[in-house]
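Subject: for your reference before the review

Hello V.,

The reviewers asked for a structural picture of the protein, and I figured it would be easier to keep everything in one thread rather than splitting it across files. Below is the amino acid sequence we used in the manuscript, unchanged from the supplementary table.
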Amino acid sequence: MSYIRAALALGLTITTAQAADVIVRLHQPLSAKMTVPGFGLVQELIPELNLYLMNDMQKSATVATSLTKARALPSVMYAMDNHKLTLRGRTPSDPSYGQQWGLTKIQASAAWDLGTGGHNSDRDDIVVAVVDGGTDFTHQDLVNNSWINTAEIAGNNIDDDNNGYVDDINGWNAYNSTASIPKNMHGTHVAGIVGAQGNNGKDVAGVNWDVKIMGVAASSGEAAVILRGYGYVLKQKQIWINSGGRAGANVVATNSSFGVDGAECMSERYKVWNDIYEQMGQAGILSAAATANQAWDIDSTGDVPTSCTSNYIVSVTNTTEQDGLYSSAGWGKTHVDLGAPGTDVLSTVPGNISRKLTGTSMATPHVAGAIAHLYSVGSARFTQLSKSNPAQAALEVKRIMMENVDAISALANKTVTGGRLNLKKASQAIANY
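And here is what came back from the structure prediction:
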């Protein structure tokens, strides 16, 4: 008789794998007398150790609360989360990975030892909103990493989930207030840097091999369009928070590659930008922002959004393969936080191909991708903070990322940190949070 049939015969509850799975070792074999109250049996793992994969019958339970409950039971010797293990020194099979010098520079391979992105310790999807000209989600390296609003039915012209947006399957087009996302080259390139699917034998790899990318077509010369796009992102995160993760999207970062050269963010004309970044920050969203593609000091000339004062902005400039500051990239000891690879960066473009582009627009998605990666490898303690106090968790991610840069001479006294992104060091720090 199989253990499942035997369990049924004993009257034990059989369940299927869920988010709050835990591994428990019992003092005695599971039986009608030796039970784990409040938990259902998913699978017997090692009979010799009385080791079982079990699931909390309380559907709203998190891994942390399930572990606390299981460890308090007299039948349980010990309990642990169903944690992930990875191979050492991850190098993806993507044929063009060798040309992605930026990933080598930020030590992505070593960071991938801790995880390749996609989910936090509670197995919640992690989402990055690419606020740009649009994204080609049919690209072979993006199709499996596109965010999907599973509560919406595509093409029926009905707002099925009552979130205020009709047919928003992969995101929103703020240009014309529809769900049709354009296949824009710039936005597709940015999306690939954040999260082109890794280790799939195709094209390139992103900072995250697995992550959910929300397409928000809003990169416009018109402020109202961009603000509509940000409004969509904020709404989806608030829905996610208010529903306990059952709806909406767990957006942890936006990527924005637009601005107003020489503008003073805190002036009456532009102060709405600081307000929207603050508002998104309160919901736990960091905004990775590209500084100007101009060789000037942002502290003196001003810039929107990278001279805004919100702590939830991470402003980024463009560094080269030789760790220089690119000749046409802005800096600012007060307002530009750090550098990231942005010169001759190979990434996805429409048509199932990849090509190289240069600019602060290419540097910034390395940082947006890093933010998502840090949420994915953060400790269980950090994950709980991200739910109990999302605004504080976002600031912790920013702090950890900025405290773990590689100091480079080209950015000394030219950025807040004086350094360039290092994914490995930041990932190790948050894994031990």
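For the response letter, the relevant points are probably these. The two ends are 45 Å apart (CA to CA). Confidence is low (pLDDT under 50) at residues 1-11, 85-89.

Happy to draft the paragraph if you're swamped.

O.
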